Amino acid sequence: MYLGLDLGTSGLRAILVDDEGNVQGEAEAAFDLAHPHPGWSEQDPAAWIAACETAVGSLRDRCPKAFGALRGIGLSGHMHGATLLDADDAVLRPCILWNDTRSTTEAAALDATPGIREITGNIVFPGFTAPKLAWVRNNEPAVFDRVAKVLLPKDYLRLWLTGEHISDMSDSAGTAWLDVGARAWSDKALEAGGMRRAQMPDLVEGSAPGGELRPALREAWGLDHPVVVAGGAGDNAAAACGSGCLGEGTGFVSLGTSGVLMAGRDSYCPDPASAVHSFCHAVPGRWYQMGVILAATDSLNWLARNLRESPADLANSLPASAQAPSPLMFLPYLSGERTPHNDTRIRGAFVGLDVAMDRTDLTRAVMEGVAFALRDSLEALRGTGARFDTLLATGGGARSRFWLTTLANVLDLPLSLPRGSELGAAMGAASLARAAATGADPDSIMRPPEAAEVIEPHPEARGAYEAAYQRYRALYPALANAG
């Protein structure tokens, strides 16, 4: 049996799977975020440990026999967080999370440092880890002076599980301290951020062993044999492992709180200027690239909140299939945008509002606007040489048939819906655990799921959606200049 632990922004999910990838049990535990100032997003790392204890305890109670056969643990977690530890591994301050924007000035300064984009393969975004430490140095110098180790969120959970300071390549690629092509810490990037290599964890591949479960936890959990903890992965790399998206021609589109369009790559092909993320994959010799939009289902949540309705009711007000684009256009820049604009100041808009329009028109426009934003990411990824024949569709927004057919039409690509398979980051983490514990080839474990259905774009609507996308693209410069 193999345990996948996915540390999310608002909770931890645990799944227990067997050698064939069949889920034997699952559990979840929630925790809170803190926003002490505008633009700040923090979390107490102790909450992650408590959530893990709760979830594991639940699994042990529900399926004791299966849990007793545990041989490996895989970790997935939200990327870019800064968990600061002193020389005794005590937490120095709350973890600064991926969606914290306080370090905009520091990010711009690091991004302008000669050679940094070439080393890291990416723009230095405010959400990355390195500018967070630069902010701490500038604003909390007493804390900065005591930093002995910086761990990403899932790796703090690993420290509790194993006692080891270890990270994997995929998660570390989002720090702006890693040479992403060489898959190693960069002394030049560390120096630019005022950091030392000694403050970094050791690095392993995500499918390799990354420590063993501590004897005290083995005893507490009723296990009388060694349990390997895999290197693991950042959440999107783990999700790619869970859906078999490893190499060239594979990819997925995720309609979650944010939106992600991911491409597996067999080689390193960065293009920082496009605001495409280029990161190490969780398996050796592979990379992945992502276009990221900041508000996907969050755009629908925003509309629902302001209309005082539920997102599900708004989605259910639409037909099952999108046949043509709406005359109303929505730009989903509710809190800025990443790919392809890298613009923290841009804000959203409705364009073309008419007195006859109602909640259904607004909902339709929001879904189309998110699809157009993801088309921007698709074009940016194609500019790096990424190719797609079909995309796996995942995330909460994929429950809406209207949204899926809209997305297929806007991207002009078939969308594959998996048949009853457990996907996502927790499954990817469990697959990495299996690879680490058995030494099996990741390609033999992490295969794309069988499709229950493939949603094809409507050929007769191609021209109309293409014209609508071109109108959408033309609105960004006007909106940026208006601000």
From TrEMBL:
Belongs to the FGGY kinase family. HAMAP family: XylB. This is Xylulose kinase. Residues 252-436 form the Carbohydrate kinase FGGY C-terminal domain. One of its GO terms (molecular function) is D-xylulokinase activity. Gene3D superfamilies: 3.30.420.40. It comes from Pseudooceanicola batsensis (strain ATCC BAA-863 / DSM 15984 / KCTC 12145 / HTCC2597) (Oceanicola batsensis). GO terms for biological process: D-xylose metabolic process; xylulose catabolic process. Keywords: ATP-binding, Carbohydrate metabolism, Kinase, Nucleotide-binding, Transferase, Xylose metabolism. The keyword DNA repair does not apply. The active site is at D235. The keyword Transmembrane does not apply. NCBIfam families: XylB (TIGR01312). The record marks D6 as: Important for activity. Residues 1-242 form the Carbohydrate kinase FGGY N-terminal domain.
